[in-house]
């Protein structure tokens, strides 16, 4: 292949970036061109994404990328899963997309599970039960009358891609987070759609990563200062799908933790695990690039720390993350541990107060200072990784000898060391930008700059990107005791 430059738009729940990637058979070089925050907006009690603000930042990022690289070969977009915008019959957006942490879905999952049967839902979709899965959001939207004028549902990357190109589609890895995709056929589960009374025409045609995704519309071409209609390529548009594609694994004996706002902990398989034990453990079978299955579980993730930091900042303290982490490293381990998966931690708000409630209820000392709260969060996350990693191996039968930590959490040395200790496996930390790399690589392959399957793409990441290795320090008895305290 001939080296090419492509642009990755990667939107996370707490921030976005536009990255330029130069890719060739032995080259993979990523530059952050534009970074921006992603701050939800509450309007009349509903938490929305500021989708127009995000779109504006995407355009600004593409403009800056094209100024540096007029030869840009392709653009690809990924974002967090589950959330969507609704278009009317003329293609106009009906309202600002609602945030998955909004309370509109309270109680809906239990009702839908009772109606359709949790076992049946899992057998068809293979998806873990999370209250914000698209299916529950759509049922909530229907009850609020929001589907009355709706013609099409577009997941966030598909919506932005529609605005750039005018083309409608549903990228399959992200469609797998809706809980409306048939995991065996990788097609829409129209039977579920019908039984829930959702409009059948709402779901657009599915697209696979690597397919052409149209070209920039003339008006967009002018807005971003391009001299031609730049192609858009469909990528693993679920951020986790791109992250897993960007893991620098050397063979398939690995477990990944894609560690950002969420921690997605699991293994890559070539077929789903749909057993009862898997459903009870709430493991998911999301679709990955190249027809793979991402067999994983959501762990609450750095959200606990990000949201705590936001609270401390709002209260006037000016906490510095590096200083808080350094202080947390000095705090007594396991003074207090909580179950990160407790749904009380899901909505925005005072996380330290909720941790304090749990500690009081479970007869543990209440962490007071930011350092103590942070240590409690990191110990608790590592414990959740320990449990989830063990379950992933048991339920899938996959043997692993290393854990790849990718995403922002790879920068958190304390968390990476605790993860190695808790799981009793070496941790390879990095790249931080695995999601953008996975996005870039799928595009680069589509435009012919590189060839091969996921193994070849990953080998390119492993050969070019720095990783840091953490060895387990072997305090197995202490971790086992801490885990028992959680389940007691
Ligand atoms: C991570 C993620 C995760 C989803 C959540 C909504 O960014 O995409 O995989 O469950 O956001």
Automatic annotation (TrEMBL):
Molecular-function annotations in GO: transferase activity
Record has Disulfide bond as a keyword: yes
Record keywords, A-Z: ATP-binding, Disulfide bond, Kinase, Nucleotide-binding, Rhamnose metabolism, Transferase
Official protein name in the record: Rhamnulokinase family protein
Residues spanning the membrane: none
Species of the source: Polymorphospora lycopeni
EC number, as in UniProt: 2.7.1.-
InterPro entries: ATPase_NBD (IPR043129), FGGY_C (IPR018485), FGGY_N (IPR018484), Rhamnulokinase (IPR013449)
């Amino acid at each position: 292949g001939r080296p090419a430059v492509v642009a990755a738009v990667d939107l996370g729940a707490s921030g976005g970036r536009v990255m330029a990637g130069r890719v060739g058979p032995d080259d993979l070089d990523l530059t952050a061109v534009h970074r921006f925050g992603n701050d939800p907006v509450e309007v009349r009690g509903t938490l929305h994404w500021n989708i127009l603000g995000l779109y504006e930042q995407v355009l600004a990022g593409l403009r800056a990328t094209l100024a540096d690289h007029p030869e840009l070969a392709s653009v690809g977009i990924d974002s967090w899963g589950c959330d969507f915008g609704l278009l009317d019959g003329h293609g106009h957006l009906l309202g600002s997309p609602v945030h998955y942490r909004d309370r509109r879905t309270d109680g809906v999952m239990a009702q839908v599970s009772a109606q359709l049967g949790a076992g049946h839902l899992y057998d068809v979709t293979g998806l873990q039960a999370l209250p914000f899965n698209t299916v529950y959001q759509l049922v909530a939207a229907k009850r609020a009358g929001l589907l009355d004028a709706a013609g099409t549902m577009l997941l966030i990357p598909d919506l932005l891609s529609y605005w750039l190109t005018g083309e409608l589609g549903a990228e399959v890895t992200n469609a797998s987070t809706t809980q409306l995709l048939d995991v065996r056929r990788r097609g829409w589960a129209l039977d579920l759609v019908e039984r829930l009374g959702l409009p059948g025409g709402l779901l657009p045609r599915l697209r696979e990563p690597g397919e052409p995704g149209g070209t920039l519309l003339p008006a967009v071409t002018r807005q971003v200062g391009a001299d031609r209609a730049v192609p858009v390529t469909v990528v693993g548009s679920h951020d986790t799908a791109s992250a897993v594609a960007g893991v620098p694994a050397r063979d398939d004996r690995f477990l990944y933790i894609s560690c950002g706002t969420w921690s997605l902990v699991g293994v890559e398989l070539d077929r789903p695990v749909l057993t009862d034990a898997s459903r009870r453990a709430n493991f998911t079978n999301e679709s990955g690039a190249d027809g793979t299955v991402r067999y994983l579980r959501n762990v609450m993730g750095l959200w606990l720390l990000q949201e705590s930091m936001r609270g401390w900042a709002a209260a006037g303290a000016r906490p510095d993350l590096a200083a808080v982490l350094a202080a947390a490293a000095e705090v007594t381990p396991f003074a207090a541990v909580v179950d990160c998966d407790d749904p009380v931690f899901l909505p925005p708000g005072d996380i330290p107060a909720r941790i304090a409630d749990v500690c009081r209820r479970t007869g543990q000392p209440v962490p007071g200072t930011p350092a103590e709260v942070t240590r409690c969060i990191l110990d608790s996350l590592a414990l959740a990784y320990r449990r989830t990693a063990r379950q992933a191996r048991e339920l899938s039968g996959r043997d692993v000898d290393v854990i790849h930590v990718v995403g922002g959490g790879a920068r958190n040395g304390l968390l990476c060391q605790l993860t190695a200790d808790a799981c009793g496996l070496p941790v390879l930390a990095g790249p931080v930008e695995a999601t953008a790399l996975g996005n870039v690589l799928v595009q680069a392959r589509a435009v012919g700059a590189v060839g091969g399957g996921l193994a070849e793409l990953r080998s390119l990441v492993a050969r070019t990107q720095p990783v840091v290795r953490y060895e387990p320090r072997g305090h197995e008895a202490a971790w086992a005791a801490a885990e028992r305290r959680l389940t007691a």
